[in-house]
Predict the structure of Phenylalanine--tRNA ligase beta subunit.
Amino acid sequence: MDVSYEWLKELVDVPVSPEELADKVSRTGIEVDSVTHPDEGLKKIVVGKVLSLADHPDSDHLHVAQVDVGEDVPLQIVCGAPNIAAGQTVIVALPNSWVGGHTKIKKSKMRGVESNGMICALQELGFSDSVSPKAYSAGIYVFNETIAPGTDALEALGMTDAILDFEITPNRADALGMRGVAWEVGATYDEKPHFKDIPVEETGKPITELLNATVTDENDAPAYQMRVVSDVTIEDSPLWLKRRLWNAGVRPVNNIVDVTNLIMLEYGQPLHAFDYDKLASHQILVRRATNGEHLTTLDGNDHELIDDDIVITDGTRPVALAGVMGGLDTEITASTKTVVIEAAKFAPVNIRRTALRYNLRSEASSRFEKGVDVGSINLALDEAARQMATLGHGVVATGTLSASAIKPEPVIVNISLARINHVLGAELTAETVTTIFKRLGFGVTEADGLFTVSIPTRRWDISIEADLIEEIARIYGYDELPSTLPTTTMTIGQFTPSQTRRRRTRKLLEGLGLSQAITYSLVAEAEAPAFALEASEPTQVAWPMTNDHSTLRQNLVTGLLNAIAYNVARSQNDLALYEQGRVFLRSKDETRPVEKEYVAGAITGLTRQKSWHEAAQAVDFYNVKGIVETLLGDYRLNEPVRYVALTDEPTLHPGQSASILLGDKRIGLIGRIHPGYAKAHSLPDTFVFELDLDALLAADRSDMTAAPAPKYPSVTRDIAIQVGIEVEHAAIEAVIWQNGGKYLQDSHLFDVYHGKNLPFGQKSMAYTLTYRRDDQTLTEDEVNAAFAKIQTALETELHAVIR
């Protein structure tokens, strides 16, 4: 909320500068984000009066004005504003003045005619279009009251004020009005606010002869009050009122509408004004809308309503969305003669839903959502009627129309001094606490350390002991409370097993030479399903900023490949990247995806640079497989990991890729990027892997045990076999281990050959088998028997030829 420092000083004595006030209030509970001085950087801007006006001799739209600026001789100024006229009181930037945008105004010639300054629009002084009156949106600003020429225009416009930006949290909606802010500042500096509540003069007809009001369900409108002001004249608001509005970020409209906004800013109580003559039956009915009903709001938009909306009707048709926005058909216009004023409290949840549903969030709806002071509803209504009668030269009807009402009663909370000191860790006296409650404007009595506190209705956020303790702490000063160590048992912080393992995974990969990358969680729709470990429905963002970031990722590889392509395009060709992050998988019958933790890598270029004693070495499938096996080995999985060749994955090379299985569950993939995919995405030869970390963390693991060095020697046998090219190494390993016997310790592939001297479609694979007994030395017969069994099994099961 924008708080005017000058207006605040009228309500409470402020003994410090705006900057000091902002710092102090921020430390007592309500943050002040900034202090703005609207006149900062502006200089030599005065009020002037246009004495005469003539057409420019060399232009069809420029005028030559003689302007009295309080000096001995009028200034000649060339102006192109379409609304300039003789006799007007205007804003004048003198020669060598500074206006908005750090622009200096100098003497100049415009098409041969001398111009000594500039006649200004509000926007040229830094006013935003949102607060500048619409009547002057295309031209200069004209004062509607007499001001002596030469007067400081910045002061006349209220620009010498300081504006404090109060960041109001939902629980402190009492400070969404200047009176609430005055109470807050008064409590901070031990100053009591001084409000001028002038009684309203009722000289018109009884309101019951003019209007009737009914609320269908008092849960929708617990309080609904109305007044009527007759014989009003719609005109521009006086300058003092405009100043208060635009310094609070509100656009002035006319004297009636401006009063409703003024009262909202002062009391925090939103009001609405209807044109009495446009209410068809003069029977106000507050009810729920009927599904399909229509209402055109003040912004000119038509809305189809539902039965969750609370509406104000003239007995039959809706004329306003309660607490959100009025209807266009009953707005205040220049022809309005009688005004109906509404002050109410509406159901907060319904107001919030309605405002969001129709995108009509407003200052009024924001306040109704958070709550209003039920003790000020009629006070605000009376002041609005008084101001409208004064500024509009009208007559206030006798009486207030009350369709529903809440009796404003204070909340009583009991609290002890011992409890306060126990929670705050302080030694406050009863006198100190009593003084704080009085500074806050609370009623308080104390006897033997027990306080009975009466909370006024303006502080509806306070209802329990903890609320009172917070108030005492912030007014006393958080920095004044003693610092104490906790007396409870301390729990030593540590990582969970899952967090520890995830961090170890990153360290292992970095130790293996990979660098961490962090890529976008949003990818293009076509990229989302690629490299996926399991089927998933795409999850799209409702309002994506770009097509390349429209869908939640289902894999990590895509992001890494984008990073590879980006770097290669900039001549960085030797890359080894990994990412540990979440993917988003969704089944068809779910609306929200499940988040899973994955880890993935992408490697391209050289793993070893050329040097004087060795050749360069490019990355290949087995480099990447070694990284994966090292990582998986650190998990000490109970169940063996298997690699099954992939032939139907369109993004991976069919001869150099595999699924990684733990038992029967697919937990990852590894392989070379398909040449077609690489070409389409401007990628070099790149090898990737991806693992489901959640599955690995959930898998059973074995304990790490230490074994002594063997006492007895091992025996090795080499075997070379000729098999079909389609036979996998894993299948051969499986046969060897199934038939190797209990003394087989290791099986190692040391040679693969296919080509000359072998039949077409055949290959030769050579293994070294290691045998050892831990209780005695193996005999030749034991080794030969076990080796022969393996040979027979290979010939029988894989149709291998022993070479």
In short: The mean pLDDT is 93. The first strand starts at residue 2 and ends at 4. The two ends are 89 Å apart (CA to CA).
